[in-house]
Amino acid sequence: MSLPRKPPARAKKHPPSKLAALQLRRTLALSAFALVLVLFAFGAVVFKYLMPPESTAVEMLPAVATPAAVPIPTPAKTPTTEAPVDEQFMTASSRAAVARDEIGDPSSRLVVVNKQRPIEGKRYEPELVSVLNSEHQLHPSAGEALEKMFAAAADDGVQIRVLSAYRSYDRQYGSRNANGQKHSGAALDAISARPGFSEHQTGLVADVGMPNGQCELKACFADTTAGLWIQEHAADYGFIVRYPDGENDITGYIYEPWHLRFIGTATAEDFTASGAPTLEQYFGLPAAPDY
Ligand SMILES: [Zn+2]
């Protein structure tokens, strides 16, 4: 006897319509995949052979932003407390180049007059106005600034007076002779300019002092109320102490905290910021210790 045989399991078959749909979907999927591959390959070929190298692309298309146009970060500068001397003089040279004509022009507030740089046209006479209703005269720009400065000092309770301002060539000649009664040679040259070599002849300079004559034309003027106020505020009005302490090898003059030179507020601010002690160093000009 034999067990009734189960009919052999027939392979499951899809009906013909479903089979066709399945095959169609497979074909479509494969085709889509193949299309993607072909497009990808085509894109790669186009990119490789048709696109110019990046550097050329930058040259050809300067206006188009490319990764090469991303700014490269610059390394942080090493902080320095003080610019090296060479750098100071490089800056000074460029200032001199910019102001080349002005530093030789006695009518410019940037003029540099010293023992190596006489006033161009030695008998030059500037435009002048009286200052502070006195007999003293200055160039209008310097006169206006001086009156503003004196008014500001007075507001702070500090009185300053003018001892000497503009001096003509002839007046300098007389002043030099008067000083020559007591001094001679290098000692005379250190305190009194020869005529034609004095900044006072430009109308841009005032010698100032205390109303009571304290430390008049002496180094100790720096420690008077007027002297201290000047050191702190003169640059705000465009004036600098032209002959600072310890710089006579550069300027050719002893320390004169009373001798104020007008260079204008913008230049005085830049001068102060530069750290240059003298106009010679500020402009990178040769030292002028003597004639
Ligand atoms: Zn002076």
Summarize the structure.
This protein is α+β, with helices and mostly antiparallel strands and 291 residues long.
How does this structure look, described?
This protein has 291 residues and is an alpha+beta fold. Residues 50-87 have low confidence and may be disordered. The N and C termini lie far apart (147 Å). The chain has two domains: 23-54; 92-282, Muramoyl-pentapeptide Carboxypeptidase, domain 2 (2-Layer Sandwich). 41% of the residues lie in helices and 9% in strands. The protein is elongated. The strands form two sheets. Strands 3-4-6-5 form a four-stranded antiparallel β-sheet. It has a two-stranded antiparallel sheet with strand order 1-2. It is built from ten helices and six strands, in the order αααββαβααβαβαβαα. It binds zinc ion. Zinc ion is lined by residues 200, 205, 207, 259.
Secondary-structure blueprint of this entry?
Elements: H1 16-50, H2 54-60, H3 85-98, E1 129-130, E2 137-138, H4 140-155, E3 161-164, H5 169-180, H6 185-191, E4 205-209, H7 225-233, E5 239-243, H8 248-251, E6 256-262, H9 265-274, H10 279-282
Antiparallel strand pairs: 1-2, 3-4, 4-6, 5-6
The structure holds zinc ion.
The site of zinc ion has 4 residues, from strand 4.
